[in-house]
Amino acid sequence: MTATDGGALAPRKTFLGHPRGLVILFFTEMWERFSYYGMRALLVLYLTQHFLFGPAEAQGIYAAYAALVYLMPVLGGLIADRYLGSRKAVIIGAVLLVLGHFTMAFEGTGGRERLTIGDTTYELQVEGRDQNRRIFAVNGDERVQVAISPEGVSAVGAEPSAANAADVAAVATGAAIGAQPTGALDPATAAAPQAAARSGFPAFTATGAYKLETTRDLALGEPVLFLALALIIVGVGFLKANISTVVGALYEENDPRRDGGFTIFYVGINLGSFLATIACSYLGIKYGWAYGFGLAGIGMLFGLLTFVLGQPWLEGRGAPPVPVQGRSILGVPLVPFFWIAGVVAVIPTWLLMQRHEIIETALPWIAGVIFAAVVGFTVFRLKGAERSRMLVAQVLIFFSVLFWALFEQAGSSLTLFADQSTQMPSWFNAAMTQTFNPGIIVLGGPIIAALWVWLGKRKLEPSTPVKFSFGLVFVGLGFLVLTWAAATQANDAFRVPLIFLFLTYFFHTIGELCLSPVGLSMITKLSVARVVGMMMGVWFLSSSVAHIVAGIIAKATATDTVAGVVTSPELALQTYGSIFGTIGWTGVGVGVFLLLISPLLKKGMAGIH
């Protein structure tokens, strides 16, 4: 039997009515997403708590990382389409991902923070990784629990004085000192009010009378961190788009099972995400970062083994467009060339991640030039229905940037909000809040899909522009929930109940289910056939830019931290409430505007729903 159309073959054996290769791809993608989302759940917390990056810097690193993760598959897809074929590209990507995730498990010494009062310097040490973290000032055998607020440094447990009377009262009432929930005080400290005084540590030192200095392991720890991120970025570039291509190659063009196959495939994505954010978050927060990241690496290793050992079940799908035997680039055989190229590509990516501000500055400009060129091509080279459909596609891509910029706060500002401003049960932690999205998708996705079918049978299904507007309104409403909760529902420690963060994710996920499934479909339906590939590239580029915009928003929520702990929980909550209110009303307002112009856009779609 011979390959046709880049490796698509007539189906042979099936499993539960689908090509049995779908089983291999389901579990490969499930484990790949397990590794990706497991690492994502921990990343911003790891940056702020272990490496002691400030929240703004950490969110900038995360934004640059996520932007490149969405940009690289454009290049990986081109390489697979022209040279390697999807299967070989997936294997290269999977190997790089395994290396990247296991490299993340190398913690190094991270960051160190030193407190100098007078002539004495203390190293600040933090116990714990959840919301009950405690800060200790250590100098030799001297070890004192401290609380740092905008007013100054207090020795927790010191005898009352005019300067620290409010802190001592907080201990008595169980309220918070700075970012320290006093219910979690070290028992010895709480039981001995004179402990700090005996140690010689000042009961209170006002801001301005002490000095804080942060250092990081620039020789090994930080470079290894960025190397791990670079390996993951390049690995995702080779794997992400191409494994979906292999799924499509399992089916003939008009096979009625195709949509069902992709639905099963997407269940694997969300199952992997759900399991990862529970397991990796639990291990990472409870036992140590290396355990959480290491489990993500094990998951990706399972994915690689599944794909390699399952090759016979793929029955030749995803083969190169032209056999690779005898082909070379610069005298190097094709497959070894791209193995080398993949490793070499890690180097500039590693350098860029260490200068993430370059990505934040350059990418929007590059995207703007490309988008302007696409608009120019549409206006001056196309006519009639082709032009109007392409313009509608570009308008919707523009609106999607705002949606994803708001939605993707999940990996950055919403994770830090969970850590800094949300009441957590003892069995739950901030990273685990990212289970809400995949869990709701698994439960609610079939309901939304059935709703569209039910409405479609009655000729009431909303058009694509209307679905996009719903997505924007729902993502905006999610943030308004937190704004209201921050203003009215916070406790004495300036934390809101977890249910409100869950409701935010609920609204965001409903918005995602309205917009995301129709996004790629919209591109293929509205684009002129000869430039579909280019428009797909623009779609992924817009998602990449959205993460840069998301980073700008997330940075605006940042407040001061010491040793990864906010110095003013009250200010942190107020800042979150203000920024979330602004972007929430923006999402709702833009969504309503899109809804109002949707009849015009629908007309421009020229018969496409």
UniProtKB/TrEMBL annotation:
<dbReference type="InterPro" id="IPR036259">
    <property type="entry name" value="MFS_trans_sf"/>
</dbReference>
<dbReference type="InterPro" id="IPR000109">
    <property type="entry name" value="POT_fam"/>
</dbReference>
<feature type="transmembrane region" description="Helical">
    <location>
        <begin position="263"/>
        <end position="285"/>
    </location>
</feature>
<keyword id="KW-0472">Membrane</keyword>
<dbReference type="GO" id="GO:0006857">
    <property type="term" value="P:oligopeptide transport"/>
</dbReference>
<feature type="transmembrane region" description="Helical">
    <location>
        <begin position="436"/>
        <end position="456"/>
    </location>
</feature>
<keyword id="KW-1003">Cell membrane</keyword>
<dbReference type="GO" id="GO:1904680">
    <property type="term" value="F:peptide transmembrane transporter activity"/>
</dbReference>
<dbReference type="InterPro" id="IPR050171">
    <property type="entry name" value="MFS_Transporters"/>
</dbReference>
<feature type="transmembrane region" description="Helical">
    <location>
        <begin position="532"/>
        <end position="553"/>
    </location>
</feature>
<feature type="transmembrane region" description="Helical">
    <location>
        <begin position="59"/>
        <end position="80"/>
    </location>
</feature>
<feature type="transmembrane region" description="Helical">
    <location>
        <begin position="389"/>
        <end position="407"/>
    </location>
</feature>
<feature type="transmembrane region" description="Helical">
    <location>
        <begin position="468"/>
        <end position="487"/>
    </location>
</feature>
<dbReference type="InterPro" id="IPR005279">
    <property type="entry name" value="Dipep/tripep_permease"/>
</dbReference>
<dbReference type="Pfam" id="PF00854">
    <property type="entry name" value="PTR2"/>
</dbReference>
<feature type="transmembrane region" description="Helical">
    <location>
        <begin position="89"/>
        <end position="106"/>
    </location>
</feature>
<feature type="transmembrane region" description="Helical">
    <location>
        <begin position="329"/>
        <end position="351"/>
    </location>
</feature>
<dbReference type="GO" id="GO:0005886">
    <property type="term" value="C:plasma membrane"/>
</dbReference>
<feature type="transmembrane region" description="Helical">
    <location>
        <begin position="291"/>
        <end position="309"/>
    </location>
</feature>
<feature type="transmembrane region" description="Helical">
    <location>
        <begin position="573"/>
        <end position="597"/>
    </location>
</feature>
<keyword id="KW-0653">Protein transport</keyword>
<keyword id="KW-1133">Transmembrane helix</keyword>
<feature type="transmembrane region" description="Helical">
    <location>
        <begin position="499"/>
        <end position="520"/>
    </location>
</feature>
<keyword id="KW-0571">Peptide transport</keyword>
<keyword id="KW-0812">Transmembrane</keyword>
<comment type="similarity">
    <text>Belongs to the major facilitator superfamily. Proton-dependent oligopeptide transporter (POT/PTR) (TC 2.A.17) family.</text>
</comment>
<feature type="transmembrane region" description="Helical">
    <location>
        <begin position="363"/>
        <end position="382"/>
    </location>
</feature>
<protein>
    <submittedName>
        <fullName>Dipeptide and tripeptide permease A</fullName>
    </submittedName>
</protein>
<feature type="transmembrane region" description="Helical">
    <location>
        <begin position="224"/>
        <end position="251"/>
    </location>
</feature>
<dbReference type="InterPro" id="IPR018456">
    <property type="entry name" value="PTR2_symporter_CS"/>
</dbReference>
<keyword id="KW-0813">Transport</keyword>
